[in-house]
Specification:
mainly beta, binds copper (II) ion, 567 residues, 41 strands, Immunoglobulin-like, binds CU-O-CU linkage, 6-stranded mixed sheet
């Protein structure tokens, strides 16, 4: 039982606008090693004949889909032309703090920011959006959000749908709030208009075969409980940061703000028919933004939540119209996908705890302010310091009445337990956002590798943009402790040869066990990274450009860094 609620709302808003299905907008793609992004003002018609002021990247609304390959070095120019200070953050990517685009990397109006990074991540669906403290919701809601699709050899070797716009589609799910002049509101609970890729009442022509959807919850607050008409099953193949070990068959998928899931729908038997992607929000338990009442129970009707016709209602997200299959259609999925090797809990160096509490108990617990370990966000305060190379368990407890999707920069993590229970298969892969329900404790594990910076922090925060803007965010630095005497002794045992070199670099660590070798160029970008686990290795470096590089060798007992010349 569901109805086209968004249609109802539009006609309420706009009076006599005729109901019509709109073809889904598919953002253009951008790739290559030099990427120019201009953040600009625009306009967009969410409602026929009504002009809404928007922000977009290289266009009126949303941002181009960036196609990156693992191992690429990418140089960006991000030019800010919106007349307001902003930042640009690469959500989910493992990059150094100075290139991460957090609240400290401001781009004042009419200036450019030039981050650069090597793509170290696994194939998955990431995204990018502004991150200026206090106005992230405004900038994202007005249109600043784009996909980043990373490809790698492991994913490429699988028979999966991957032709962008044909059998592989990005779907940015957002609800937005509009004022009576059809202008976008932020920091509000009136987000009653559902849209996908900035298209209200969208429809999409799909071929009668396996089709892949990279679903992003890009909403400020609303969670979706995704399913198909008639409870038809679909398969999830990837979580936030990579492919799952095997496809997971689902009829419902909970997707909270910031999270991504790659799903595959089999349209083979539906040629000539239509089927809807639906949010079954009537099935939500309380305690989540999107349910009938967001508080833990009916006696907690949080101030300012109702009324919103989407709350607790089932509504259509997107209508699929199924047509003829393409040539070379994918008709079955591989039974196994990627090697998912969760970090062993026994290797953790430390457990760090985080507790969410409302600032004023019992009052206005919907929009915050919420505290993390008693703190509200302060640019000048670093609450947590992580040692480079450390493996940590983060234990997160929610002592508030509403669920919070918790996000950590720098790392992909593995969920260990929810209230002591191991996660379901579709949450067992790489994640960078995890929903923490009221009164729940979630434990996850991550390794903080490659990037240390004593000055520029990484963020952790609730990805409900209202909560984040209201201070539900903290920051941590990763530091590389200085070499001790013992480590210098280790360093003397490790030999690199030949140097200068051309095609191969040999490393002999004597009696030391080499864990990993990292090669950086002189601007500090990580160009190559390899795991070793032996005392000797020989690296093929023939595809690296001539020049000077820094090679960092991590052994079980210490680290050595040496300059090499490739000629
Ligand atoms: Cu999607 Cu800190 O952000
Ligand atoms: Cu992020
Ligand atoms: Cu929150």
């Amino acid at each position: 039982m569901y109805m086209k609620l968004s249609t109802l709302i539009i006609s309420m808003l706009a009076g006599a606008i005729a109901y019509g299905q709109n073809p889904l907008f598919i953002p253009d793609t951008l790739s290559g090693s030099n990427i120019n992004l201009t953040i600009q003002n625009g306009t967009h018609q969410f409602f026929t004949g009504q002009v809404t002021n928007t922000y977009g990247v290289n266009g009126n609304i949303l941002a181009p889909t960036l196609l990156l390959n693992q191992g690429d070095s990418v140089y960006f120019t991000v030019n800010n032309q919106i007349g307001d200070t902003t930042t640009m953050h690469w959500h989910g990517l493992h990059v150094s703090p100075e290139n991460d685009g957090g609240p400290h990397s401001i781009i004042p109006p009419n200036t450019s920011w030039s981050p650069k990074f090597g793509v170290l991540d696994k194939a998955a669906t990431y995204w990018y959006h502004p991150h200026l403290h206090g106005i992230t919701d405004e900038h994202v809601s007005k249109g600043l959000a784009g996909f980043i699709l990373v490809r790698d050899a492991e994913e490429q070797a699988l028979a999966l749908p991957r032709t962008y716009g044909i059998d592989d589609f990005p779907l940015a799910l957002q609800t937005k709030a509009f004022d009576t002049n059809y202008q976008i509101l932020s920091h509000t609970n009136s987000d009653s208009i559902m849209m996908v890729n900035a298209t209200v009442d969208p429809m999409l022509d799909v071929p009668a075969q396996m089709v892949r959807f990279r679903v992003l919850n890009g909403s400020s607050q609303r969670a979706f409980y995704i399913g198909l008409t008639g409870n038809q099953p679909f398969q999830q193949i990837a979580s936030d940061g990579g492919l799952l070990a095997a496809p997971v068959t689902l009829t419902r998928l909970l997707l909270t703000p910031g999270e991504r899931a790659e799903i595959v729908i089999d349209f083979s038997s539906l040629n000539g028919q239509s089927i809807d992607l639906i949010s079954y929000a009537s099935e939500f338990l309380n305690g989540i933004y999107g349910s009938a009442a967001p508080g833990m129970n009916a006696s907690m009707p949080l101030t300012g939540y109702n009324p919103n016709p989407l709350n607790g209602a089932d509504f259509t997200i997107l209508q699929y119209n199924v047509g003829a299959p393409t040539t070379n259609a994918i008709t079955t999925l591989p039974s196994t996908l990627a090697a998912v090797v969760p970090i062993d809990e026994n290797t953790a160096d430390k457990t760090r705890t985080f507790t969410f509490t409302p600032m004023s108990p019992g009052f206005n617990q919907l929009n915050g302010h919420f505290l993390i370990n008693g703190n509200s966000f302060d640019h000048m305060v670093i609450t947590d310091t992580v040692l480079l190379g450390a493996t940590e368990i983060w234990e997160v407890t929610n002592q508030s009445a509403i669920s919070h999707p918790f996000h950590v920069h720098d790392v992909q993590f593995y969920i260990l337990t929810r209230d002591g229970v191991a996660p379901p298969a579709n949450e067992a892969g790489r994640k960078d956002v995890v929903l923490v329900k009221p009164q729940e404790t979630v434990r996850f594990i991550a390794k903080f590798e490659d990037f240390a910076d004593e000055n520029i922090p990484y963020m952790f925060h609730c990805h409900l943009l209202t909560h984040e803007d209201n201070g539900m965010m903290g920051q941590f630095i990763v530091i590389d402790p200085p070499l001790g005497l013992e480590e210098n002794l280790i360093s003397n045992k490790i030999k690199l040869y030949p140097n200068p070199t051309k095609n191969r670099l040999n490393i002999n660590a004597g009696t030391e066990n080499i864990k990993s070798v990292l090669i950086y160029n002189l601007t500090g970008e990580l160009i190559l990274k390899t795991k070793v686990n032996k005392n000797k290795t020989s690296l093929n470096i023939s595809n690296l450009a001539n020049g000077v590089y820094l090679v960092k060798i991590n052994t079980v007992n210490g680290t050595k860094t040496e300059k090499i010349i490739i000629q």
